[in-house]
Write a structure and sequence with these properties.
By secondary structure, the protein is α/β, with parallel strands linked by helices. It folds into two domains: about 5-115, Rossmann fold (3-Layer(aba) Sandwich); about 120-275, 3-Layer(aba) Sandwich (Rossmann fold). About 45% of the residues lie in helices and about 15% in strands. It is built from ten helices and eight strands. The chain has helices spanning about 15-25, 45-60, 70-85, 90-100, 120-130, 155-165, 185, 200-210, 235-250, 260-275; strands at about 5-10, 35-40, 65, 85-90, 145-150, 170-175, 195, 255. The chain has a four-stranded parallel sheet, with helices on both faces. Helix 2 (about 45-60) packs parallel to helix 3 (about 70-85) and helix 8 packs across helix 9. The radius of gyration is 23 Å and the shape is elongated. The chain starts with a strand and ends with a helix.
């Protein structure tokens, strides 16, 4: 257990995703300290900033800032100085670095990354696609995917597809069920197919945990939670071995998700897709 607790204030002119990702990435490197985040998002006026500074006064702690507006950034620095807390600006050094690299001045427009342009609509389209092609639905539409994920039930196919959709990737997923025919659209797919596998022990624990909370898969096209084989250790080993052999036979690359987060699995998938282009 951590020995101490530290309140970390995250102040952003946007949704705060950048600061949240940074704090989450850094937190595990300080195992003796529990970082308790306070989020101050969409700070775009002096009044909104003063509310955040008041919060810092009530719970003093270091501040991570991604404010773009120079006046607000200056006001925040002054406020932190009055309270006596340290502040780190994560955006300005990066913007200045890119200004030197590009020879172009940064626009300094708050929320510029959230403009609903082509990239935004690509993510929306990808999310619609994922929802329509989850768990083997609409296999006739696999040709429209950027990638198809396959694997046994509870190998994290669906959450990985949803994460990929947030990156603008149209990801379908198809469950591999022993005894059930593999869709011919999958076997004949010109779209990259990637298999997700997992250790038998990890899969057994996941299935035992999910049995009481998930909608039975036989209502959704996957393996039935009511089947005793679903949590039979020996059957699980056979199921995973069969799925692995199927992927090898079809030359579908395999990713072991046993010790990977959804983010790490998605990063590995994106790396495979990127290298496939070259």
């Amino acid at each position: 257990m951590p020995d101490k607790k530290l309140v970390l204030h995250l102040i952003s002119e946007g949704t705060g995703q950048t600061l949240e990702a940074m704090s989450r990435a850094c937190a595990p490197h300080f195992p003796n300290t529990e970082l308790e985040s306070r989020h101050w998002n969409l700070v775009r006026t002096s009044a909104q900033l003063q509310r955040a500074i008041t919060g810092i006064e009530e719970e003093p702690g270091p501040v991570l800032s991604s404010l773009i507006d120079r006046d607000l950034a200056k006001e925040l620095r002054e406020g932190c100085a009055r309270v006596g807390v340290k502040i780190h600006d994560v955006m300005t050094p990066t913007l200045e670095f890119l200004e030197r690299a590009t020879g172009e001045s940064a626009s300094g427009e708050p929320g510029a990354q959230y403009v609903m342009g082509r990239e935004y609509h690509r993510r929306i389209d990808a999310m619609h696609y994922v929802l329509a092609h989850d768990d083997g639905q609409e296999t006739r539409g696999l040709s429209g995917a950027d990638v198809v994920l396959v694997g046994v039930s509870r190998a994290s196919k669906t959450p990985t597809c949803i994460y990929l959709a947030n990156r603008g990737i149209k990801a379908a997923n198809v469950p591999l069920v022993p005894g059930a025919p593999v869709p011919k659209e999958l076997l004949n797919s010109q779209v990259p197919v990637i298999g997700l596998t997992i250790s038998p022990d990890a899969l057994l624990e996941i299935r035992k945990t999910r049995m009481g909370t998930m909608v039975p898969d036989n209502q959704r096209g996957g393996a039935s939670l009511t089947q005793p084989d679903y949590v039979n250790p020996e059957r699980i080993r056979e199921e995973l071995l069969w799925a692995r052999r199927l992927c090898v036979q079809n030359r579908w690359p395999l990713i072991d998700v046993t010790r990977r987060s959804i983010e790490e699995t998605s990063a590995a998938i994106l790396d495979l897709l990127e290298h496939r282009k070259h």
